[in-house]
Batch of 4 targets.
Target 1
Amino acid sequence: MLKNQKLFVICIIIFIIQNCGLIDLWKNRNHEIRKSHYTNGTLEYESSYLNNKLDGPSYHYNVGGILISYAEYVNGSPHGIWKIFYDSGKLKYTCSYFYAHKDGEEKFYHENGQMQSLIKYEYGKVISEIIRWDENGELLY
C-alpha cells in the first residue's frame, strides 16, 4: 500500500510542476501538420512533422480527393505501414517498414483486387522468393 501511495504522490507532484510551467516536458519539440492543396482547392497532402522531419502519418491525395498513398514515418524515415492506391481508391501496394528497412510482406495488387506479387523481407533483406499471379489469380511463378 505504501508503494502505491508514493507513486501517487510523485505523479501529483509532476502534474503540479508541469501545469505551473516550472518545467516544460515538450520544450524543444516542434511538431506540426503540413498541408498542401491543388489549385482546385482539394487537399494534395497532409503530413506530420517533428523538428522538420516527417514523423507520423502522411496522406497524399489525387486531384479528385481520393487517397493515393499513406505512409508512417519516424524521424524522417519510413516506419510502419506504407500503402499506395490506384486512382480508383483500390489498394495497389502495401509494405511494412521497420526504421527505414522493409520488414514483413511486400504486396502488389492488380486493379481488380487480385494479388499480383508477394515477397517477404526481414529488416531489409529478402527472405523469400517472389510469387506472382495474373489478374485472374493464376500462379505465374
Target 2
Amino acid sequence: MTPDDPPTPAPTPPAPTPPAPAPPAPTPPAPAPPAPASAPAPAPPAPASAPAPAAPAPAAPEPGLARGLVLGDDVQIGRGVEWGAHVVVHRGVTIGDGVVFGSHVVVHPGTVLGEGCVIEDHAVLGKRPRLARGSSAVGEVGRLELGASVTVCAGAVVFAGARVADGSIIGDQSHVRERSRVGPGSVIGRGSAVDNDVGVGARVRL
C-alpha cells in the first residue's frame, strides 16, 4: 500500500446476535375437575316391624250350646238338650233328657225339669216371690218341679215351690204361683193365674 492509497477502512464488526427469546413460561396445568359428589348410600331398609298379635278368636261354643248361654254351678244336664239363645240357668238346676229351650229363658236356682219339657221364649222358671212389706207369708217356698213333657209357653212365669205334673201346659203369659199344684194333663190357658197354695186337678182346662 502506497502513501497515496486511501486507507483501508476497518472491517465493520458483526452486529451482535440478538439474544434468544426466553422460552415461554410453562402453562400451569389445568385444575383437575372436582370429583363428582358421590350419591349418599341408600339407607338400609327399616326392619319390618313384627305384626301386632291378633286378638284371640272367641272360643267356639261346645256342640249343642247356643250363643249367650249362661250356666251356674252344679247344673245337671241330660242328653239331647236343645238351647235357644241367651238362656240363663242358675246353680243347682236339674235338666232332664230332651228338654227344649227357647230364647231368653231364665231358670232360677234348684229348679227341676223333667225329660221332654218344652220351655218357650222368655219364660221364667223357679222365681222366688217378692213379698210386700208387712206380708204374713214366711218361710222357704221350696223348689219348682216340672214333670215329664210339660210345656211352659212364651212369657209364662212359674214360681218356686210349684209342682206341675206330667203333660201339663202352662199357657202364654200365665202365672203359676208358689206352692200351687197342677195335675197331670191340665192346661192353664193364656194369661191365666193360679194363685199360691191352690191345687188344680188332673186334665183340667182353665
Target 3
Amino acid sequence: MDSSRITSWARNLPKRMKKHWMIYIMITPFLLHLFFFSYRPMIFLQMAWMRFSPFLGMDSPWIGWENFQSLLFGRASGMFLQALRNTLILSAYDMIFLFPLPIIIAVLFHELKLSKFRTVSQSVLLLPNFFSVVIVTGIARAFLQPTIGIINQFLLRFGLINEPIFFIIQSQYTRFIYTFIIGWMGAGMASLIYLGSMMSIDKELYESAALDGAGRLRRIWHITIPGILPLISVLFIMRFGNILRANAEAVLLLVEPLTYQSIDVLESFVWRMGLMPIHNAIQNLSLAAAAGLLMNVVGMVFVIGANLVAKKLGGNTLF
C-alpha cells in the first residue's frame, strides 16, 4: 500500500466511522481485547534480553543475547531442541493427517443425501468442540486405561493382544494419542467452514457434469475441490503460522515422566521454564520469554514465506 492510498484511507476514515458507527461500536470490545491482551503485553518482551528478577521488575540487568545463546547452544539447548523436534513432528502429523480430515468430512457431508443421518453425524462430530480439552483428554485417558479401558477390552476380546497395554506411559503411542485428541476436537467445527464454502458452488455445474456423464468422484475432483481451493490455500497458509505451536493444555494433561522425550513441545517447555524452578527461577523467566519470542518470530516468517510461495504460484493469499 503506497503513501497516497494510506493518506486517502486516513482522510476518509472519519466519514466511514460516522456512516457505519454501529459496526464500529460492535467491534470495539474485540479491539480492546486485542490491545490489552495481545499488544500491550509486548512491552514485557524486553525480558528476553534481561536477567529478569521479580524483585527488580523491568529494572533487571540487561544481558544482550545471552538467553537466546543459552536456548540454542547453552545449558538449556538440550531441552529446547528436544521440544522443538517434538513440535515439528506433531506439526507434521497435523499437516498430513488433520489438515485434510475436515475437508474429507465436509465432502462426505456435502454428498450425503440422508438429511437425518447427516444431522446426527454432524452433532456427534461437533460435540467435542463444546467440551474443554480437560474433559476430552480425560475421556481419552479413560478409554485407554489398561484394566477398564474400552480400547484394551476390545483388543483383548478379539485376541489382538495377549495382555493390556499401558498406552499413556509408552512414548511410542503418545504422539498418536495427542493427534487423535486434537483431530477429534477440531475436525467437526473445521468441516463446517469447508461445507459452507461448498454450499456457495453453483449447482448448475454439478447438473451439467452429470449430464456429460461425470460420476460422483469426478464431480468432487473437478468441481467441489476447485471450488473450495481458495479457502484451502488461505487456511493452509494460516496453519503454517502455527507450525511451532501445539495444544499445550492437551500435552500437559497427557504427559507422564516416561513420555517427556516424545511429547514435550515448545509451549509446554516455555510453561515449565517460566513457572517451574528447574534451574535458577530468576533466569527461567527470561529464558521462557526468549523461547516464546523466538517461537512467534519463526511462526511469522513461516506465514510470510508460505504467502509469498502461494503468490508466486498464482494462488490465493492472505495479503
Target 4
Amino acid sequence: MFNDAASVSVSDSTVVGGNYGLSTNAQNGVKQKISLEIKNSTVTAKNSGSAGVMFNIPGTLTISDSTIEGGR
C-alpha cells in the first residue's frame, strides 16, 4: 500500500511467512500512519531469526485472541 494512511484487519486467519509473518515498511518515512488489527488468528514466521510481526512505522497495532510465532 502506498497511501499515507491505511487500515488492515486480519481475522480468523492463518498467515505464514519466511522472515516476517506480517510486516510494515519504513522506507517512505514517518508520514505513514496505519492501523493493523490481528484477531482470532495465527501469524508465523518460519526462518531462523525471524519475527512474527514487524511494525516499524507510526500507527496502531492491536492483537487479540491470537498466536504470534517467530524465531527470535
